[in-house]
Amino acid sequence: xxxxxxxxxxxxxxxxxxxxxxxxxxxxxxxxxxxxxxxxxxxxxxxxxxxxxxxxxxxxxxxxxxxxxxxxxxxxxxxxxxxxxxxxxxxxxxxxxxxxxxxxxxxxxxxxxxxxxxxxxxxxxxxxxxxxxxxxxxxxxxxxxxxxxxxxxxxxxxxxxxxxxxxxxxxxxxxxxxxxxxxxxxxxxxxxxxxxxxxxxxxxxxxxxxxxxxxxxxxxxxxxxxxxxxxxxxxxxxx
Length: 239
Hints:
Blueprint: H1 5-16, E1 28-38, E2 41-50, E3 57-62, E4 71-77, H2 80-84, H3 92-104, E5 109-114, H4 117-120, H5 123-134, H6 139-145, H7 156-164, E6 170-173, H8 177-185, E7 190-194, H9 205-213, H10 223-231
């Protein structure tokens, strides 16, 4: 059962009257909700606008997450080269497709699609980073060489999006401990973690190993262990 028309009407009306207090506050508003049938199942898509980065972000929802606890949530950062063009340099498209398939088979869940290309450095700078990686830099070294942090992403907008959808607590689909900590900092209640392990290919194995070794990403589980954990509905990161 998806978010019904009455709840949609309420959310839209609530966001029309939504205001932010304080210069440092991030104001995120729902602007529209529509059905989104897909190859991964039936979803609803929610369009958000905000006054922080001025970008449009999206929530892709399966089932009714309104006022729900322990909602499976994937927070996915935009990757044009991977998501749209099928690049093998990263595992972004695989993570997005696996997440949508998993959520589409669950009772309910959310994928937040954030416009944070290249771990927040933007498309042009991501391609510059790729050029440095072609010369021997790893993904974190390349970002630093361009004058950025290893990861420039911020999840304040994601936290506000979940609040706008009235999601009370989440089970985060992620391998990234920094994402967990940042969401906690912004007030998201995380009740567990669902691993999202993608087997490497010859083009992204070094990239994934760098994320594991330098970024602390939790990629040590075998695919079989990951599947067993998901099937048994367990979590390995309790807060």
